[in-house]
Amino acid sequence: MIRNVAGAVLALVGATAAVWSPFRAWYDGRHGRDYAIDELFTGITDAKSDVLGSILAPFLFAALLTVLGVVLRSRLLVALAGVVVLGFTILWMVRVGQAEGQLTVGGGGTGLGDGVANALGGGILLLLGALVMSGRSHAPHRVDRAPGPTHPTPAGPPPESTPESTRDRTADAPTSEYPRPDPYGKPDPYGNPDPYGPPEQPDRPPEQPRP
Fold first, then answer.
1. With left for phi above 0 and alpha for psi between -120 and 50, is residue 73 left, alpha or beta?
2. How far, in Å, CA of 18 to CA of 39, rounded?
3. Which of 4, 92, 102, 174 has its CA at 20 to 30 Å from residue 66's CA atom?
């Protein structure tokens, strides 16, 4: 937040200096608003240009980019505004150097004026403002996940997964403490008499009737 505010202040000051510079002397006392915008591509002449058709036009466009960049917190727009100001200022210096044969810096209204210094300083401030700004912050992407189970599930297999053989043995197991005797004559493993077999014979002979 603090970086965005500081960068916005630098950018707005730089844009103001760039827009104000054409109303100052650029070379030999001639103001920047007197140079036509098309002369930057065809060559500098002594003709006086209209204000809106002068070098002021690209600086106004750069100021508009600066305002949009500050409102949208876009470092790219602010940096683009600085490139526009510096680009047209350097292009003008190249064209004036070609027309005059050389560029001089002097006092008393001769050579490069303070208008050029304002334009160069404004472009540098715009680039600094773009570097200081932190830009828009992006919220972390959150993925909504389904809530997990609140109670742990048992680790053992469910009742339906019990093998068929195990269920059969469990169902056929006798409910009493001793197994039931086999009704088909098989010997009982525990020695119980077979209820369906012949009657048990006594160990001693029967008593004879008395005479």
1. left
2. 19
3. 92
| SS3 per-residue string spanning 16-47 | HHHHHHHHCEEECCEEHHHCECCHHHHCCCCC
Asked whether the beta carbons of 131 and 3 are under 8 A apart, the reply is no
Q: What is the mean pLDDT of the chain?
A: 79
Residue 112 DSSP class: B
Q: What per-residue confidence (pLDDT) applies to 10?
A: 96
Q: How far apart are the C-alpha atoms of 40 and 36, rounded to whole Å?
A: 7
CB-based contacts of 211, cutoff 8 Å, min separation 6 = none
Please state, in angstroms and rounded to a whole number, the distance separating the CA atoms of residues 13 and 8.
Answer: 9
Residue 90 near residue 72, CB atoms below 8 Å: no
Taking the complete model, does pTM exceed 0.70, yes or no?
no
36 CB-near residues (< 8 Å, 6+ apart): 45, 47, 49, 50, 53, 54, 55
8 A C-beta contact, residue 35 and residue 49: yes
157-174: average pLDDT: 52
Rounded mean pLDDT, 109-116: 87
How confident is the model over 169-177, as a mean pLDDT? 51
Name 96's Cβ contacts closer than 8 Å, sequence gap at least 6. 27, 44, 103
